[in-house]
Amino acid sequence: xxxxxxxxxxxxxxxxxxxxxxxxxxxxxxxxxxxxxxxxxxxxxxxxxxxx
Length: 52
Known about the structure:
By secondary structure, the chain is an alpha+beta fold.
């Protein structure tokens, strides 16, 4: 599943935000412009540390 699909699912389910790895920031910006998604994004440098 790619980031675009994840953003679409997040918006459809009503989740207001996503945590995205920092290296995907540029891709997320482009996708958000395309989809005009009503989802806020938080960029994280080390997302796996959130769960450890």
